[in-house]
C-alpha cells in the first residue's frame, strides 16, 4: 500500500473549494459522467484503430445510488487507469489544476467562478464538493506488468492511499461517500433530475437503476382473453445517444425535427414553425438545431430556451453572447467543442471565435428565411405574423441582418395583403408622394379604433399598413432611418390631407380674426392640457371637428410606455382638436348669438370627434347620448 501527500502547497484546499463553489455543487455529476464517457470513447477509438483487440462488451455507464451506505457510484467500462496513471492524472494533474484554479478563483464574481471549474481540469476534483471521501477503483485495458486493478482513496486532506484491489472487469468506478450537508444527492429523484439535465444526449448509454413500466404481456391473458397489461421492471436508460443534431440533415424529414422538438421540450404542446439545422466544421466546429417557436399571444418571450452543449454534454441554457440577442427568442440546441464554455461571460463576449459563431448563426437563419421566402412564399406569408417579431427585432438591432432581411421582410396592409419592402414602395409611390417629394407610409396600430381614419385614407386612394406588433414603434423608426425621403405616419396623426400634403389648400372661409374669436368657444369644452385647438381649411365634405394625435408626441409616449425612457414616464396624451374652418356647421356656430346654444353645438361636434377616436367614455359618453336625444327631439 502506498500512502502519499498530494502535491499542493496549500494546507487543506478542500474546505476552501467547498465554500467557493457553493452555488454550483450539482455539476460534480456532469463532470464524473463526462469523464466516464471520455474513457469509453477512448476505448472505442483504440478498438477502431485495432490497438484494443478484445471484445468491448456492453459499454453502458451505470450510476448506482445506495442511500443506506450513503454512496453514489459512477461506473464505466472504458479504458481504466494503471497505478501509474492514477498517480499522474489524479494526484498530480488534477490537483495541480485545482491549485491553479484556486489562485484564479479568489476575487472573482460568482458567475465567473462557476464558469471556471472545467476550465482548470477541476472535473474529477469537483466530487469533493459533495463528498467526505472519494474512492476510485479502476482496472486498465492494458495488459502486462503494472496493470493490476488499483484502489485510490482520499478523504479531503492532502493525503491519499493507493493500493491494489480486486476488480475483475475493465474500467473505472468512482465511489462518492456523500457528506452530511450534501445529502440531497442521496435522493433518487434529485439524481434523476440531474442526469436528465446534463446527460440527456451523451453518446454512451447511461443507466440509472431500474424503472417500472406497463407492458402488454405476450403470454398472460385477462378474463376477456385479451393480452394482459403487466407491470415490468426495466433498466432505466437516461439518454438518447444519437441526438438529431448529430445526424445528417439530408436523412431527416420535417417530422423528425418536430418530434425532436418535443423531446427537448416535453412540456410544450405547440409545433415549431420551422427549424434550421446548423452544421459547420470550418473555421470552427458547431452543430445544432434552432427552432422558430410559435409565440404566445402576449408575446411573453422566454430567453432561456436554447441549450448549449459541448460534445453532447449539457453546459447551460443561458447563451447570451454566443447567439445574437434577437435570436435568443428561438429554441433549440447548439453543440460546439470550440466555444470556450468554461470561462466568464465578459470573456465570452469579447472572444473572436464567439463573435464568428454568432455571425454565422445569424447568417444561417437569414439563409433559411430567404430560402423559405423564395421557394414557398405563400407558406412564408402564412407564418409571417408569428415570425415578424424576430425579424423586426433583428432589423432593429443588427445592421448586418437588415442587409439580408431587406429581401424577405414583409409589410402587411389592412387588406391582409403582403408586400416586400421594395414591392410596397412601388405600390404606393404614385399616390402617396407629397408635394415635397417625400413618400408617406400610412399605418394603423388598431384597425378597429382607427377605423374612420383608415376609411378616409382609403377614400383618397391611399393604402394603410398594419403596424400592431409589440415593437412596431421601434421598427418604424428604423425603417425611417434606412429609407430615403420617407416618412411614416399613423392615420390619425393629422387630417389626411395634411399628412399627405399634395397642394396648397383653399383659403379658409373663417379669417384669422374669426378663428381667434372661436378658439375659446371650443377650448372651454375640453381639457386644455391635453387638447390643442387648431383651425384647418378642409373640404366641406370632411367632418367639422376631428381629433388627431401628432405623430412625434405619440411615438415618444409609446416608446416611454415600452420602457427605457423613464424621464418621459408620465408624459400626458397630447391631441389636436382640428376645426374645419370651411364646414357650414362651424360657420353656424360662429354666427350664433345664444351662448348656451353655441356651447351645446360645439360640445356635440367635439363629442362626435371623440367618439371616433374612442375617447368618449363613462359620464361623458352618457352626457353625449342624453344631449343627442334632446337634439333629435
Ligand atoms: P479532464 O477530464 O478535463 O482531463 P478531470 O479532472 O475530469 O480532467 O480528469 C482528470 C484525468 O483523470 C482525466 O484526464 C483522465 O485521464 C483521468 N480520469 C478521470 N476519470 C476517469 C475515468 N472514469 N476513466 C479513466 N480515466 C479517468
Ligand atoms: Mg473531466
Per-chain topology:
Blueprint: E1 2-5, H1 13-20, H2 27-48, E2 61-66, E3 71-75, H3 83-105, H4 110-116, E4 131-139, E5 150-154, E6 159-164, E7 171-178, H5 188-198, E8 206-221, E9 227-237, H6 254-264, E10 274-280, E11 286-292, E12 306-310, E13 313-316, E14 331-335, H7 345-350, H8 352-375, H9 377-397, H10 399-405, E15 410-412, E16 418-420, H11 421-429, E17 439-444, H12 451-459, E18 464-466, H13 472-482, E19 486-490, H14 496-499, H15 512-523, E20 531-536, E21 545-548, H16 551-562, E22 575-580, H17 584-591, H18 595-612, H19 618-632
Parallel strand pairs: 2-8, 12-14, 17-18, 17-19, 20-22
Antiparallel strand pairs: 1-6, 2-3, 3-7, 4-5, 4-7, 5-6, 8-9, 10-11, 11-14, 12-13, 15-16, 21-22
* Residues in helices, as a percent range: 25-40%
Bound ions, cofactors and other small molecules, one mention each:
adenosine-5'-diphosphate, magnesium ion
Content of β-strand: 15-25%
Spatial order of the strands forming the largest sheet = 1-6-5-4-7-3-2-8-9
Structural category is alpha+beta
Compute the gyration radius: what is it? 36 Å
Mean pLDDT: 87
According to CATH, the fold-level topology of the largest domain is: Heat Shock Protein 90
Q: How many extended strands?
A: 22
Q: With helices defined by DSSP (H or I, 4 residues minimum), what is the helix count?
A: 19
Give the number of domains: 4
What is the H level of CATH, i.e. the homologous superfamily of the largest domain?
Answer: Histidine kinase-like ATPase, C-terminal domain
Mass-distribution shape: elongated
Amino acid at each position: 500500500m502506498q500512502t502519499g501527500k498530494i502535491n499542493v502547497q496549500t494546507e487543506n484546499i478542500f474546505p476552501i473549494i467547498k465554500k467557493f463553489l457553493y452555488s454550483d455543487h450539482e455539476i460534480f455529476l456532469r463532470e464524473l459522467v463526462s469523464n466516464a464517457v471520455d474513457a469509453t470513447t477512448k476505448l472505442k477509438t483504440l478498438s477502431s484503430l485495432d490497438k484494443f483487440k478484445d471484445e468491448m462488451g456492453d459499454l453502458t455507464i451505470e450510476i448506482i445510488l445506495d442511500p443506506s451506505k450513503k454512496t453514489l457510484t459512477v461506473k464505466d467500462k472504458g479504458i481504466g487507469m494503471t497505478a501509474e496513471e492514477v498517480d499522474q492524472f489524479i494526484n498530480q494533474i488534477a490537483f495541480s489544476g485545482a491549485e491553479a484554479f484556486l489562485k484564479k478563483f479568489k476575487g472573482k464574481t460568482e458567475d465567473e467562478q462557476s464558469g471556471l471549474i472545467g476550465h482548470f481540469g477541476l472535473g474529477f476534483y469537483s466530487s469533493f464538493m459533495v463528498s467526505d471521501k472519494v474512492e476510485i477503483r479502476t482496472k486498465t485495458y492494458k495488459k502486462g506488468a503494472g496493470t493490476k486493478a488499483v484502489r485510490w482513496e482520499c478523504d479531503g486532506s492532502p493525503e491519499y492511499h493507493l493500493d491494489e484491489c480486486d476488480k475483475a472487469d475493465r474500467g473505472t468506478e468512482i465511489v462518492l461517500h456523500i457528506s452530511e450537508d450534501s445529502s440531497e444527492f442521496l435522493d433518487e429523484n434529485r439524481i434523476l433530475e440531474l442526469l436528465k439535465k446534463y446527460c440527456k444526449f451523451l453518446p454512451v448509454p447511461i443507466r440509472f437503476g431500474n424503472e417500472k413500466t406497463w407492458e402488454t404481456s405476450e403470454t398472460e391473458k385477462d378474463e376477456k382473453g385479451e393480452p394482459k397489461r403487466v407491470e415490468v421492471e426495466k433498466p432505466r436508460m437516461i439518454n438518447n445517444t444519437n441526438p438529431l443534431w448529430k445526424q445528417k440533415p439530408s436523412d431527416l424529414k420535417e417530422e423528425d425535427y418536430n418530434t425532436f422538438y418535443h423531446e427537448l421540450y416535453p412540456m410544450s404542446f405547440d409545433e415549431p414553425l420551422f427549424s434550421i439545422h446548423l452544421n459547420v466544421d470550418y473555421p470552427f466546429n458547431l452543430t445544432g438545431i434552432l427552432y422558430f417557436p410559435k409565440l404566445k399571444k402576449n408575446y411573453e418571450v422566454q430567453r432561456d430556451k436554447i441549450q448549449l452543449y459541448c460534445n453532447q454534454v449539457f453546459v447551460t441554457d443561458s447563451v447570451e453572447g454566443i447567439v445574437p440577442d434577437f435570436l435568443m427568442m428561438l429554441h433549440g440546441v447548439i453543440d460546439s467543442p470550440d466555444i470556450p464554455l468554461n470561462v466568464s461571460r465578459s470573456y465570452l463576449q469579447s472572444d473572436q471565435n464567439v463573435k464568428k459563431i454568432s455571425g454565422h448563426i445569424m447568417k444561417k437563419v437569414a439563409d433559411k428565411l430567404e430560402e423559405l421566402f423564395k421557394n414557398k412564399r405563400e407558406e412564408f406569408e402564412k407564418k409571417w405574423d408569428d415570425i415578424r417579431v424576430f425579424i423586426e427585432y433583428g432589423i432593429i438591432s443588427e445592421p448586418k441582418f437588415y442587409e439580408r432581411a431587406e429581401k424577405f421582410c414583409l409589410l402587411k396592409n389592412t387588406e391582409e395583403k403582403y408586400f416586400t419592402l421594395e414591392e410596397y414602395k412601388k405600390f404606393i409611390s404614385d399616390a402617396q408622394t407629397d408635394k415635397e417629394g417625400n413618400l408617406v407610409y400610412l399605418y394603423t396600430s388598431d384597425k378597429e379604433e382607427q377605423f374612420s381614419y383608415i376609411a378616409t385614407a382609403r377614400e383618397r386612394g391611399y393604402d394603410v399598413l398594419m403596424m400592431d406588433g409589440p415593437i412596431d414603434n421601434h421598427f418604424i423608426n428604423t425603417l425611417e432611418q434606412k429609407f430615403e425621403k420617407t416618412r411614416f405616419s399613423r392615420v390619425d396623426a393629422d387630417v389626411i390631407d395634411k399628412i399627405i400634403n399634395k397642394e396648397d389648400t383653399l383659403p379658409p372661409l373663417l379669417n384669422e380674426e374669426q378663428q381667434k374669436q372661436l378658439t375659446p368657444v371650443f377650448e372651454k369644452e375640453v381639457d386644455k392640457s391635453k387638447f390643442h385647438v387648431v383651425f384647418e381649411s378642409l373640404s366641406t365634405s370632411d367632418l367639422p371637428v376631428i381629433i388627431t394625435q401628432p405623430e412625434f408626441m405619440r411615438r415618444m409616449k409609446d416608446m416611454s410606455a415600452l420602457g427605457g425612457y423613464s424621464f418621459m414616464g408620465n408624459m400626458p396624451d397630447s391631441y389636436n382638436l382640428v376645426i374645419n374652418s370651411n364646414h357650414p356647421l362651424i360657420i353656424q356656430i360662429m354666427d350664433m348669438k345664444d351662448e348656451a346654444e353655441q356651447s351645446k353645438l360645439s360640445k356635440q361636434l367635439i363629442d362626435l370627434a371623440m367618439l371616433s377616436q374612442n375617447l368618449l367614455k363613462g359620464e361623458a359618453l352618457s352626457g353625449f347620448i342624453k344631449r343627442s336625444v334632446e337634439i333629435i327631439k
